[in-house]
Amino acid sequence: LTASGGPFRGKKAEELKTVTLAQALNHPRWKMGNKITIDSATLMNKGFEVIEARWLFDMAPQQIDVVVHPESIIHSMVEYCDGAVMAQLGLPDMAIPISLALEYPKRLSNRLERLDLKTVGALTFEAPDMETFRCLRFAYDALKAGDTYCAALNAANEAAVAAFLEGKIAFCAIQDCLDEVLQRHRPSKGADLDEIIRVDAWARETARNILEV
Question: Model-level pTM?
């Protein structure tokens, strides 16, 4: 999976303490809704994609890798058993995947700008900094822990991001909150839908209490 790195790519934890909401919403490549844009800034969105890929493609967490690709031209890659890697390329425009989702398995023709590799220039890649952007690590941890950890992580993140968007907490408080919620969580094994809903409500309330919002 490729991640753009968001607006704070390359920054360290100390630098993130003073970032503003406007800076977090100023994504360098994608135009998305506010919640997803903040998730991109924390790398939580890529963490959720790791969780999704595990279930969509029946893969173990260690089979799913994330690389930071700031140009956002390659959107995903698949490595086959012979070592060949196939990549899906396109301009960073959400209209393309939305169109495919609406008409799958057909592809709709459109008048969107076309990818011109001659003008793109270099495509670069780097490892994600999961010490600074801990949300991505939390996703891997929750996935490996199993049970209801992923449900708790998702719900707590929604509560924390909402508080940040409302100007009630600092940017770094998002991942501090998620860390605390995961530590407090007592997982339910073999949970049914009712239990998932209970965990969701618990995580949201716990996050709000931690953040005092």
Answer: 0.90
